[in-house]
Design goal:
heterodimer, A: 285 residues, mainly alpha, MetI-like fold, two-stranded antiparallel sheet, B: mainly alpha, 1% strand
Chain lengths: 285, 298
């Protein structure tokens, strides 16, 4: 009941907000149908945010996959080595250190990044530019230039998420018996083929659930963008959650804010349906 | 446990010959890769630690390496936090909020999880899944209406109790799911044995089931804690008086004044809770993974 009240009721209220015209100041002007959504469609700011949301998530997901899967195999190999050599404790400590980006609350860990991107004292610019001379003057203004700000945000998204990808993939890998790897090897399958034909089909459900989780989380996360760039410069790095905040809370236009956020919902719904189907299929098997 | 338990068979020891070059090469490769990932994970944190201890001028002096220091290391950032900011108040608020959230979560999830795992009423399974689904409804969809509800219905806006009220929306679904899994793994036979020995159902749960599910309860508590420490959006929109703020929101709103970043204080203030949360989280990481993938592995 508690859940129903605290999630269900607000959710319908959000739906209602988005379909009517509510502002903090002016009260409620009643049902206005889909006009909030239609107005969104005409707002270039909305499309920027929409596009950014997807680009950040998509590019971030690719980065996380590449780093996370490599890390998972590394940890697997280490675990196997460690059993005969150093004992599990050492691997546990190492894993703990590598997991830091995921386990630390991002709203706290992000200050390290903020400092690295600082317009005046950016550590990145000092190392790559002043020391290694890889970059020429003028150095990138990491949080002041639309392109570099996007890169900066995606970098943090990837940094935050790759350990999660790694533990999910690792959970899948360790559920596969060693015999199957051996069999694949005997049959002459290379690394890529083993991954594609043997490992992926076996751990697909786990990968998929991990992916759903991560996409949902990344799409809906406001913290990284809010604290790094707050949508700037000039609104070029807004994402749907941040415009929902800006219009809904700071602009006081609850209806538009709710509509901004609800645009995400159909996609989350699709993710949920996939998730459910996976669960049920598993139960039948 | 899944990560460790999975490597079932040890690779046969190949180190019998004096020097095994292939193995050495392989190990070196592993170590290099490991260092790469350690570096990747750690470098932003390094700058936070560095900045927390060096003098302010060292941070902005171009002649000083950004990795090192020239003036003596200092604890002034720490003492400044304690003496001139509300850091202690925020930390207390964070503790109170998280503590209350943990309590609420457990009160709901223990009986709830047990009921969903054991009682075979129609659709128990579906209810469990439905509740877990609500975990996938992110705060960003709910925060606007919740602000209204908390403000108009409960009149708790701008107090930390607003957060106590809303955090369970994401801790309960996840912890309920975790507890359900835990209770399910406890064999029903031990309860039946207790019933046969003359306990009633309540006593069977209290004396037999609860003691063996302590690890599960602990896990649920830790996750309720870490999840509520990770929230940002609710704290941002619901609480603005300094004395009611929690850590995650007190730091960016009061250690940045206008354009001036109090870097040293910022890093120190962020590191303390971050290290606590990360450590706790790590102890229970395996359960977290299991909670997410649980439905898929078995």
């Amino acid at each position: 009941m508690y859940i129903l009240l605290l999630v269900g009721y607000p959710f319908f209220l959000a739906l209602y907000f988005s379909l009517s015209s509510v502002t903090v100041a002016g009260g409620d002007n009643g049902y206005v149908g889909l006009s909030n959504f239609l107005q969104l469609g005409e707002d270039p700011q909305f499309w920027t945010a929409f596009l950014n949301s997807w680009v950040f998530t998509f590019v971030g997901e690719i980065g996380k996959a590449v780093l996370g899967i490599s890390l998972a195999f590394l940890l697997l190999a280490l675990l196997r080595e460690a059993r005969s050599r150093f004992g599990r404790g050492s691997v546990w400590v190492i894993r703990g250190l590598i997991m830091i980006p995921w386990t630390m609350p991002i709203s706290l860990a992000i200050w390290g990044w903020k400092w690295m991107y600082d317009p005046q004292f950016s550590v990145i610019n000092r190392v790559l530019g002043d020391w290694l001379h890889v970059m020429q003057h003028p150095y990138p203004d990491w949080l002041g230039d639309p392109l570099f700000t996007r890169i900066a945000i995606v970098a943090v998204i990837i940094w935050k998420g790759f350990p999660f990808t790694a533990v999910i993939v690792l959970a899948g890998l360790t559920s596969i018996p060693q015999d199957i790897f051996d069999a694949a090897k005997v049959d002459g399958a290379g690394w890529l083929r083993t991954w594609h034909y043997v490992i992926t089909p076996m751990i697909a459900p786990i990968l998929f659930i991990g992916l759903i989780f991560d996409v949902t989380y990344t799409l809906a996360d406001v913290t990284i963008v809010y604290l790094l760039s707050n949508g700037g410069p000039y609104g070029t790095t807004e994402i749907l959650p941040t415009i929902a905040y800006h219009t809904g809370i700071q602009g006081g236009n609850l209806s538009h804010g709710a509509a901004d956020a609800l645009v995400l919902f159909p996609f989350l719904l699709i993710a949920m349906v996939f998730f459910l189907r996976l669960l049920y299929r598993r139960q039948e098997a | 446990m899944s990560a460790q338990a999975g490597a079932r068979r040890p690779i046969a020891a190949t180190g019998r010959r004096p020097i095994n070059w292939r193995r050495t090469r392989r190990l070196t490769g592993l170590m290099v890769a490991l260092l790469f990932f350690l570096f990747l994970a750690f470098f932003p944190i390094f700058f936070m630690i560095h900045g927390a201890f060096v003098a302010d001028y060292d941070l902005i002096d171009p002649s000083v390496s950004p990795f090192w220091f020239s003036r003596p290391l200092t604890l002034t950032h720490l003492t400044y936090l304690f003496d001139h900011t509300n850091f202690v108040v925020w930390a207390k608020n964070s503790a109170v909020v998280s503590g209350a959230v943990v309590a609420i979560t457990l009160v709901v999830c223990l009986p709830g999880g047990y009921a969903l795992a054991r009682l075979r009423f129609a659709g128990a399974q579906n209810i469990g899944i439905a509740i877990f689904m609500t975990y996938l409804v992110p705060p960003i969809l709910l925060f606007l209406p919740l602000v209204q509800i908390v403000g108009n219905v409960f009149n708790l806006l701008n107090t930390k109790w607003a957060l106590v009220l809303v955090y369970p929306t994401f801790t309960i679904p996840f912890c309920l799911w975790l507890m359900m899994g835990f209770f399910r793994r406890i064999p029903i036979e031990i309860e039946e044995a207790a019933l046969v020995d003359g306990c009633n159902r309540w006593q069977a749960v209290w004396h037999v089931v609860l003691p063996v599910s302590v690890p599960g309860i602990l896990t649920a508590a830790i996750f309720a804690f870490t999840l509520s420490m990770q929230d940002f959006i609710y704290a941002l929109v619901m609480v603005s008086p300094s004395a009611e703020k929690v850590l995650t929101i007190g730091i960016p709103t009061e250690l940045i004044r206008g354009d001036v970043f109090y870097w040293g204080e910022l890093f120190t203030a962020a590191l303390i809770p971050a290290v606590v949360v990360a450590t706790l989280y790590n102890f229970f990481l395996d359960y977290f993974v299991e909670g997410i993938t649980g439905g898929a592995i078995k």
